[in-house]
Amino acid sequence: MDKFVIKSKRSAIESKETPSTKNRKTDCETEQNKRIIWKKINGENLSLEHCQLFSNSEASDLLLKCEEQLEYNTGHLAKVQIFGKWIDIPRKQVAHGDDGLSYKFSGNCIPALPWTPLLTEIRDKITEITGHKFNFVLINRYKDGCDHMGEHRDDEKELKDGAPIASLTLGQQRDFIFKHADSRGKNAKRKIPPVVVELTHGMLLMMKYPTNKYWYHSLPVRKKALGLRINMTFRTMVTKQPDK
DNA sequence: TCTAGTAATGGGC
DNA sequence: AGCCCATTACTAG
């Protein structure tokens, strides 16, 4: 297992500069598609597949471009109401996608901004590799290991039935934890062990049906993770029904 | 009408 | 010290 721990945003971006020549990129990048190796993680109604979609240097380049180009929601779109209090979400978030789509998040309705050349390029690369088309991407920026996301399932009603979600990691490696709906809480019906996936720089994780129906996922706090992570989850949203 | 979902908090390990 | 878990109140649909 090749663990690549990025200690800071700076090192994430500069890590492509290796002292030796063994990792030097040639101009055969088009050959890369043939070298992609998928790994599967399966369980009861759990179906995940992941691969190293982007090389270390490609992923670092994309992370840098994201930092230069992306802007994140502020104000009420960056807050959530919990137990009566309005709290800033512990990360930054923005959505892009086809015209008219939006993302509902605990009462908030986050409208999709238009696709940008950078996001279109990444989207099309994922489509090329997976064969799946996406009309929406939710981007979450975790500045360090203290930024996180709680346990949740993605809103099934908004997502096209049976469509996978493609999750791209850029930057800091983080743990991603899946918990079965029946094994959560004090009065859990069953004891199903959680599944931990290490999300690494340049890794694409496909969450396939029906994973999201039965399994919650979270990105817990990791105090020792010091670097920046940007995550993009490409989705296929249900497009608005034409009025009858 | 009833269910599910958001994150901070504090205690146990 | 870090990680895990149960608890907390209100809203949208």
UniProtKB/TrEMBL annotation:
It catalyses: a 1,N(6)-etheno-2'-deoxyadenosine in double-stranded DNA + 2-oxoglutarate + O2 + H2O = a 2'-deoxyadenosine in double-stranded DNA + glyoxal + succinate + CO2; an N(3)-methyl-2'-deoxycytidine in double-stranded DNA + 2-oxoglutarate + O2 = a 2'-deoxycytidine in double-stranded DNA + formaldehyde + succinate + CO2 + H(+); an N(3)-methyl-2'-deoxycytidine in single-stranded DNA + 2-oxoglutarate + O2 = a 2'-deoxycytidine in single-stranded DNA + formaldehyde + succinate + CO2 + H(+); an N(1)-methyl-2'-deoxyadenosine in double-stranded DNA + 2-oxoglutarate + O2 = a 2'-deoxyadenosine in double-stranded DNA + formaldehyde + succinate + CO2 + H(+). One of its GO terms (cellular component) is nucleoplasm. Residues 133-238 form the Fe2OG dioxygenase domain. GO terms for molecular function: broad specificity oxidative DNA demethylase activity; cytosine C-5 DNA demethylase activity; ferrous iron binding. GO terms for biological process: DNA alkylation repair. It is an enzyme of class 1 (oxidoreductase). Keywords: Dioxygenase, DNA damage, DNA repair, Iron, Magnesium, Metal-binding, Nucleus, Oxidoreductase. Its EC number is 1.14.11.33. It is found in: Nucleus, Nucleolus; Nucleus, Nucleoplasm. The keyword rRNA processing does not apply. Interacts with PCNA homotrimer; this interaction is enhanced during the S-phase of the cell cycle. Interacts with nucleolar proteins NCL, UBTF and NPM1. Interacts with XRCC5-XRCC6 heterodimer. This is DNA oxidative demethylase ALKBH2. It comes from Owenia fusiformis (Polychaete worm).
